[in-house]
Amino acid sequence: MSLDPERNRAAGLQGQVENLSKENSADFWAELSAKLPSGKSEEDKKQRKQLFNAFDANGNGCLSLAEVDKGIGTVIKNEALFSAKRPIMRAFQAAKGLSQSKKPLDDDTINRKEFQELLGYLRQYFELYVMFAVVDKSDDNRSVKDIHLENLEKKKERKQTNPNEG
What we know:
This is EF-hand domain-containing protein. By secondary structure, the protein is an all-alpha fold.
């Protein structure tokens, strides 16, 4: 097993992904979407307010990345999402600063308005993460394009050192 924690998480996710590709896949995604209310309906707004308050343990009206991460683990309670740190971090970074309102803290937090976007980004980025895990059979977190470019570079280097090689 790799010493890279993200790779270990991805390896664990691979098993979960295989389960998602079976009959319970639709149930999993429907349940996850229900736990991430990012819509504009009154019900979503109400759920989002409750979720934000549950995440905001210190009650300062802003969420740090650590609070979001902890909230995903303790409030949303979805192990697959909680173990996917890259999508969590990317969703947080994407949502941070979207609102033009003044925040009581600094730019390293999200407010209630940005929280709606965070939930939508979490769902989208996690779905992309899972799709990538399905196609990343080598478990090296590299795309086919990355591998192809690396192989082209190696071929170019070989050709420069040995011009007679085809």
